[in-house]
Amino acid sequence: MNKDIILKETKSFVKDKLYKEGSGHDWFHIKRVYNLATYICEKEGGDEFIIKMTSLLHDIDDWKFSNNNNTTENFLKSLHVDEESISKIINITTTMSYKGGVANSDQNSLEGKIVQDADRLDAMGAIGIARAFTYGGSKNRLMYDPHIKPKNFQNLDEVKNLDNHTINHFYEKLLKLKDLINTDTAKQIAEERHRFMEIYLDEFYYEWNFNKEK
Ligand code: ADP
Ligand code: NI
Predict the structure, then answer these.
(1) Relative to the alpha carbon of 135, which ligand is closest?
(2) Closest-lying ligand 1 atom to the alpha carbon of residue 59
(3) Residue ranges of the HD/PDEase domain (predicted)?
């Protein structure tokens, strides 16, 4: 199978699986990550096929909603993708997630760095804010509770189970992403998105406290 056909098959596979996924990993997230990663790849280099395939597949085996973590590998084998490409793709998808900041997700390949940057950029800015509140809503969380102060987590179970408000997520993750970006191209985009989140938070607290009794 040639690479264009493999990419086409992969798009329809992922679209089918994630179209209406409700915790922020829906098909449109995948498409945005794919577009961002392709843009970064144009500027920074790297293997375009691996970058595109990994962007499409990066959330399929996600620890938060998948109970079977070799779906990606089985799918790639069914398309007769060569072993070397399969191992490159799986290596990245299994290691790139931030997991609430408790996992080491450093990437050693340029392809991994690029897809990770694209995924992180989509958690920032206007889209990142919308995704955070969507995620919080899917867990029935308050958007904000001034009595619960920002907190970091120590382990994965805590990340999964903690009942926290969504504004906290800015401090545990979103505002830290800018300094974790790998490539110069993504850093430029991250600066703008970071600034937007800071402005958003200022306005949020301003409105929250409007005419508050002393
Ligand atoms: P990754 O797999 O890259 O670590 P996640 O799966 O943790 O990313 O997050 C997917 C989306 O959901 C992101 O936009 C992220 O900011 C958001 N999200 C994750 N955890 C929370 C949370 N506790 N509160 C609000 N948003 C969250
Ligand atoms: Ni993602």
Answers:
(1) 1
(2) 2
(3) 22-133
How many residues are there in the chain?
A: 214
| Ranges under pLDDT 50 in the chain | none
Output the pLDDT for position 104.
80
In whole angstroms, give the CA distance from residue 127 to residue 132.
9
Domains: count for the chain: 1
User: Residue 96: which CATH number?
Assistant: 1.10.3210.50
Q: What is d(CA 93, CA 193) in angstroms, rounded to the nearest whole number?
A: 24
- pLDDT at residue number 77: 96
Is 56 within the bounds of a domain? yes
Q: What is the pLDDT of residue 24?
A: 72
Separation of 15 CA from ligand 2 center, angstroms?
Answer: 14
ipTM (interface pTM): 0.96
Can you give the residue range of the structural domain that contains 42?
3-208
Identify the pLDDT of residue 51. Answer: 98
Residues near ligand 1 with C-beta < 6 Å? 24, 64, 97-99, 119, 123, 128, 131-132, 135-136, 166, 169, 173
Among the listed residues 158, 156, 190, the one whose alpha carbon sits nearest the alpha carbon of residue 176:
190
